[in-house]
Amino acid sequence: MLDLKAKPFLKWAGGKSQLLDQFQNYYPQKLLKGNVKRYIEPFLGGGAVFFYLQSQYNFEEIILNDINEELILTYYVVQNNVKELIEQLEILESTYLEGDMIKKEEVYYGQRELFNLEKKTLNYNVFSNEWIGHAAKMIFLNKTCFNGLYRQNKKGEYNVPFGKRKKAAICDKDNLLAVNYALKKAKLLIGDFENITNYVDENSFLYIDPPYRPLNETSSFTDYSKIPFDDESQKRLANWARMVVDKKGACFMLSNSDPKNVDQNDNFFEDIYKGYNIVRVKATRNINSKGSGRGEINELLIFNYDII
Fold first, then answer.
1. Which of 96, 101, 126, 235 is the most exposed place for a label (fewest CB within 10 A)?
2. Total-model pTM
3. Residue 213 phi/psi, 5° resolution?
4. Quick one: pLDDT at residue 295?
């Protein structure tokens, strides 16, 4: 029997699967009592929080947005064409697994080149069968690239190198079917976080997970799109949360890195989210480009409601 508890089907920098148990202590009472009608994520990414909450609560509406076109296109294909997607992934998985490492590398860079060529001509506004093949390449690259990263250069080209994996679970059929089920009520949008402004009302709960503010020069994972998410973007988001989300009476919970991991005097988030609740949770992250830099650090949760 199919397990309908979906989990992220893409690895995404800053994924929240490891934090779900801690988050449970900080959701609004309105959500815990089942009184939230509309769930909204302006920065969908891997979707760990969405998949968990969707399995626990019966939302009437779900709005999922991200600025990364390939990401939302892939979610759309899983939502609407999952069987055809699985067929293409099974072929890619078989081709990859049957080759030696030299062949695997050839397959990887061949698919990456095709993926980038498609990005230049693909119409992201009108569905076509090309979307299915593009989504399959997106998942394949995510499963076989270095460290499961999604990174673009200034030209908008995906440029993550080969991950040298002997084995890779490229086609997780059962989870893709579970994700398909989880997305049944979801409206998928491509664009800036302000894209979802008109959907926010007093019956909404927003989980806001922007690209994290880098702790140092080697821990930056903000290149999900051609447009960087810098400190000015963080300030614009904080202002939007204050002037739009809070003003409309919606509940929001926001995650970000904690600058105090490296500088106790850095009050960036305390300043821009002054007046809101700010707590720290523990996460295991890479804090620099070397594996030795992986360790337990604090991350911030910022929310506009009281916890009983």
1. 126
2. 0.93
3. -65, 125
4. 73
The domain that holds 122 is classified in CATH as 1.10.1020.10
Task: Verify that 133 and 266 share a domain, yes or no.
Answer: no
pLDDT digit string, tens, across residues 247-301: 999 999 999 999 999 999 999 999 999 999 999 999 886 644 444 455 789 999 9
Residue 255 lies in a domain: yes
**Is 63 found in the same domain as 84?**
no
One-letter amino acid for residue 275 of the chain: G
Rounded average pLDDT over 60-76: 97
Three-class HEC string of 164-215: CCCCCCCCCHHHHHHHHHHCCCEEEEECCHHHHHHHCCCCEEEEECCCCCCC
Residue 38 parent element (H or E): strand 38-41
Contact 226, 156 (CB under 8 A): yes
Token pair of 39 as six digits: 């769930």
One domain, residues 166 and 205: no
CA angle 293, 294, 297 (to 5 degrees): 105
Q: Identify the domain containing residue 235 by its residue range.
A: 17-67+191-303
Which residues are part of a known binding site? 12, 16, 66, 209
Domain boundary among 141, 174, 207: 174
pLDDT band at residue 154 under the 50/70/90 scheme: confident
Tell me the C-alpha distance between 118 and 121, whole Å: 5
Pull the structure tokens for residue 152.
């673009």
Whole-angstrom distance, CA of residue 286 vs CA of residue 294: 4
**114 SS3 class:** helix
Binding residues for S-adenosyl-L-methionine: 12, 16, 66, 209
Parallel, antiparallel, or unpaired: how do β-strands 277-286 and 294-303 relate? antiparallel
Same domain, 200 and 105: no
Contact criterion met (CB below 8 Å) for 160 and 145: yes
